[in-house]
Design a protein that fits this description.
mainly alpha; 3 domains; 24 helices; extended
């Protein structure tokens, strides 16, 4: 048999899978009825800061603690995404602990070095960072700032960061305007991400000593999103979309490459399926809540005020209106008899170089501002989502942030971080094993010389296994490449020879090409979800397709195993039949011999 089959583990794996599928379905419908309470108004108009009493009343509706919210509201309604998220966290910790123990017992020293483990670990840290609020002691238990004067810049940096944050808050209050603090605010305002992220993040962490945790609290997803600052929104969205590119790219693509390993026939293989599928489920549900909030935000907007504000802002920033409100570009083609006028103008000008887009734009510009606003309101009445997805809305920010180039660059950064972590960790462990191996070799040499002086030479000298012969992730993949030793991937890796340095470099190049290929194949689904439907349905459908692929692969393996069992049983029955015939013939021969002897 190629694999170990356990009926009990198969039953447990299927039961856990069915339970998780039920939780996912309940969470999806729960999100549709209970969207996020996004405690930030859209900047579709020069809105004033909200009244403090209204903010307090709105914040009171969003419970901070998950357990307190469950106790007060008396049920899991509107909290299923929290349940799914924490089920993922607990399940991941259990599965990774199990796989760590199993791999160590089997001598497979590549835990946490494969991309799937690294990706899930980063996602786990991201969720814990945002959902767990830890209260630290006021005074450090161990303080080194007083003993190391050269580190006093941390205090001044924190003071400067706090003063800069205060000045920013004062300027916002004095202007009495509020802008939507998502990714696209940064390039429009002309400020760098570092200026917005680094000072507040540095101020929130204490570097002058070691502090003890006093208490911690598990926050609800709704509370976290409703109370994110501008810097926290940018840093959280950057990391979230970095993980999104890896989740729907190489993590799902690995199911196609390792279809014989991601099965349901043992706890180990079922946990591998979980590690590849669960991140896509969790992030899709979080996006479903975000998309639901974006739709609810658009439903409560006034199309006339939005168009009036965007046109004024476009004049102020000296940019085109359709760059801040993309639906205006579509509206130009929907203006009554605009195509006919454009065709007439095209036949009249003849020799000019003005194209249809410029002609239709000129037709739209001939309308007065009031007529343009009226046409936009009429268009928004029939195409609300597309028309009102403009500057200052969550929908606009999501569509601006999620492009092929942005996601690919973010994933490339994460790929480089993984490679640095992989090689640093692997090389440090290899060097440490090499030092220990040399010490043991020297000790054996000394013992060998002493025994030779006392007893003479013997042929039973102890030898140690060289540390570089351990089965690491790199060594295992080189021995078992996808597609075989003569496949295209193995040919690329061995393009410049079988030396350690060229194969290592080409191995990483091949991995990046695979990551880019899988991400490119899945990006159309991401594009449809963000730019057309504004829904997480396409992403969840993609995850379901790969989950069905795991089930199909398991069915194929089951078929092969059943065929092998039937063949083994038929061979055994044939052997028993042949043995019975041989025994009967031998018995007949013996009986005839006895008769002749008599």
């Amino acid at each position: 048999m190629d694999h170990h089959f356990s009926k009990s583990q198969y039953f447990i794996s299927c039961s856990i899978t069915l339970l998780y599928v039920g939780l996912i379905a309940a969470s999806y419908f729960d999100i549709s009825t209970c969207p996020y309470v996004y405690d930030r108004p859209a900047s579709s108009a020069p809105l004033k800061l909200p009244d403090p009493k209204q903010v307090r009343d709105g914040a009171a509706d969003i419970h901070r603690s998950l357990f307190a919210s469950l106790a007060l509201e008396g049920g899991f309604s509107c909290h299923m995404v929290d349940i799914i998220t924490w089920a993922y966290i607990v399940g991941l910790l259990i599965f990774m602990s199990y796989k760590y123990i199993t791999y160590r017992l089997q001598g497979l020293h590549y835990f946490f070095l494969d991309y799937c483990y690294f990706h899930n670990s980063v996602l786990l840290c991201f969720l814990l960072w945002r959902l767990v609020d830890v209260e630290w002691s006021e005074q450090p238990v161990i303080s080194w700032s007083s003993h190391m004067p050269s580190w006093r810049w941390l205090r001044s940096h924190s003071d400067n960061a706090s003063s800069a944050t205060m000045r920013t808050a004062i300027s916002v209050v004095s202007n009495q305007t509020w802008r939507h603090p998502i990714l696209t605010v940064t390039p429009i305002r002309g400020e760098s991400w570092a200026r917005l992220i680094v000072p507040p993040v540095a101020h929130s962490y204490r570097f002058d000593g070691v502090y003890l945790p006093i208490s911690f609290e598990i926050l609800t997803c709704g509370y976290v999103v409703a109370h994110l600052t501008e810097a926290e929104v940018i840093s959280s969205f950057l990391l979230f979309f970095t993980l999104l590119a890896g989740t729907f790219g190489p993590l799902l693509g690995a199911i196609l490459m390792w279809r014989n390993a991601l099965l349901f026939h043992s706890f180990d293989r079922m946990s591998s399926c979980y590690i590849h599928l669960a991140p896509g489920i969790v992030q899709s549900l979080l996006l479903h809540r975000l998309f639901t909030s974006a739709r609810r935000e658009i439903e409560g907007m006034d199309a006339g005020k939005l168009y009036e504000h965007v046109t004024g802002l476009a004049k102020q920033l000296n940019v085109s209106v359709d760059s801040l409100l993309p639906s205006v570009h579509t509206l130009m083609y929907n203006v009554s008899d605009a195509p006919r006028v454009a065709a007439d103008n095209a036949t009249k000008v003849g020799s000019t170089h003005r194209g249809p887009v410029q002609l239709i734009s000129s037709v739209f510009s001939t309308l007065t501002a009031k007529q343009q606003q009226l046409r936009f309101i009429q268009y928004a009445a029939t195409h609300q989502l597309e028309a009102l997805c403009g500057y200052g809305t969550l929908c606009y920010d999501l569509r601006r942030a999620v492009t092929y180039g942005n996601l690919l660059r973010l994933h490339f950064i994460m790929f480089c971080v993984w490679q640095v972590f992989y090689h640093t960790f692997n090389e440090c462990r290899r060097r440490r094993r090499a030092r220990g191996w040399k010490k043991r070799q020297a000790k054996l040499e000394r013992q060998k010389r002493k025994s030779m002086q006392l007893m003479g030479a013997t042929n039973s000298d102890a030898e140690l296994l060289h540390p570089t012969e351990r089965m690491t992730s790199y060594a295992w993949l080189m021995a078992h490449p996808p597609g075989g030793r003569k496949g295209i991937l193995a040919r690329i890796v061995l393009l410049f020879g079988e030396g350690r340095m060229p194969t290592t470099v080409m191995f990483q190049v091949t991995q990046w090409l695979l990551h880019m290929f899988f991400f490119t194949c899945s990006y159309p689904v991401i594009y449809v979800g963000f730019h057309y439907t504004l829904s997480a349905g396409p992403l969840l459908a993609l995850v379901v397709v790969f989950a069905c692929l795991c089930v199909y692969n398991a069915a194929c393996v089951n078929h092969r195993w059943i065929s092998k069992l039937q063949q083994a049983a038929s061979r055994e029955m044939e052997g028993e039949r042949q043995g019975g015939l041989t025994r009967s013939m031998a018995q007949t021969t013996a009986t005839e011999a006895e008769k002749k002897a008599r």
